[in-house]
């Protein structure tokens, strides 16, 4: 898995956008006490179910790979020249 520049900030952005996406789909928002681990898995599974992203192989479905997949997804969603995409 290749290290991505600004990965932590991109993941934070992916979680934010993912929560908004889930809310528009009719899901209730996460509680303040919900861990990022749970948010990552829920948003990942929602995006896979909606066929927005391609699922990981079943033996690769773990926290780090789900995080990486969400980061790759948000990179494609951000406009060209966004500060998180600039080296």
Automatic annotation (TrEMBL):
**UniProt xrefs under InterPro entries:** DUF5062, DUF5062_sf
Tell me, what's a Pfam family for it?
A: DUF5062
Q: What is this protein called?
A: DUF5062 family protein
Q: Which organism is it from?
A: Enterovibrio gelatinilyticus
């Amino acid at each position: 898995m290749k290290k991505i520049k600004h990965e932590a900030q991109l993941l934070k952005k992916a979680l934010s956008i993912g929560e908004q996406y889930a809310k528009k789909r009719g899901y209730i928002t996460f509680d303040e006490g919900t861990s990022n681990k749970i948010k990552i898995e829920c948003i990942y599974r929602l995006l896979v179910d909606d066929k927005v992203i391609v699922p990981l192989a079943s033996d690769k479905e773990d926290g780090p790979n789900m995080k990486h997949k969400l980061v790759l997804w948000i990179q494609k969603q951000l406009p060209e020249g966004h500060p998180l995409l600039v080296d």
